[in-house]
Write a structure and sequence with these properties.
Structural class: mainly alpha
Number of strands: 0
Distance between the termini: 41 Å
Helix content: 40-55%
Shape: elongated
Order of helices and strands: HHHHHHHHHH
């Protein structure tokens, strides 16, 4: 993968003797909460697809760690944004993975990056189902995949998008974690369906009925 952090540091006027320098003033300004606006030098890192991001773990010292830490902090897990993947970051990554229904190993690989990126998706006023998700609906409800906590498929995105549009705030990240499970159960209760958190034929039929 092309290393893009050095030009970013140079462009931001943050270059120092060591290549892993970071903006201490900016990091200190985050504290326990952010203003919700991702700094430009970190936002630029998201031009790289999640599957091509560096795998981070305890001991990593990269600008990508700042993106991770900033997001954890903004999510509500108090994390110092210092670019060093230490014990605090490891603990919060594990907590985040647990809440998202991911493998809890403290390693930030593709699936954790996908969830991290989803935190920065801007809500849209457009209630039109995206074309790539609309295509999934070419499959009849009775032939759809049965989804449950732990599922990781594009069909989960369709489910999450629909729950979100219904009014149950759900991250559209394609990962069927505790949040999605909770909202599926609420949706099932609202629709008079069996409340089991499993998206089978009856729940799919109700979801399709929205369109």
């Amino acid at each position: 993968m092309k290393k893009i952090w050095l030009p970013l540091l140079l462009a931001s006027g943050l270059f120092a003797a060591l290549p892993l320098s970071f903006d201490l003033a900016a990091a200190a300004s985050h504290g326990s909460a952010t203003d919700g606006q991702l700094p430009e030098n970190l936002e630029n890192l998201m031009d790289i697809a999640p599957e091509h991001q560096f795998t981070l773990r305890q001991g990593s010292k990269r600008i990508e760690v700042e993106l991770l830490q900033w997001t954890l902090n903004d999510y509500g897990l108090k994390t110092e944004v210092d670019g060093i993947f230490g014990a605090e970051t490891d603990r919060n990554v594990r907590q985040y993975q647990q809440e998202k229904g991911l493998v809890v190993d403290g390693i930030v690989g593709m699936y954790t990056w996908v969830a991290i990126y989803a935190e920065h998706q801007q809500p849209s006023d457009d209630t039109e189902l995206p074309a790539r998700l609309k295509n999934v609906m070419d499959i009849a409800p009775e032939h759809q995949f049965t989804l449950r906590q732990g599922s990781k498929r594009i069909e989960v995105e369709l489910l999450q998008w629909t729950l979100n549009d219904y009014g149950l705030k759900t991250s559209v990240d394609g990962i069927f974690g505790p949040e999605t499970n909770r909202n599926v159960r609420q949706y099932q209760a609202d629709k008079g369906l069996k409340v089991d958190g499993i998206v089978g034929v009856r729940t799919w039929t109700a979801l399709y009925g929205k369109y």
